[in-house]
Amino acid sequence: MRFFTTVAMAAVISCGTAAADETVIEGALAFQAMQKTTCGTTEQGKTRFGIWEGRTFSRVPGEKDRLLFDVMGINVRQCIVLNDPVRGRGYRSVSREIMVYMEPDSGEILDTWENPWTGETVKVLHVANDPVNMRAPRYERDEEGELSARLTLRQYGELSAASYEIPLFYDNPLGGDYQAYVGGSYHAMEIFNSFIYTKNLHHKSVKSIGQSHMTRSRVSQWLQWLEMGSRPGLMIFNASGFSTFEADKIPERLQEILAQRYPLYQTPPPLDDPRPNETSWTVCKKYIEQQSDGSEG
Question: Where are the domains of the chain?
Answer without folding.
Answer: 48-139+159-292
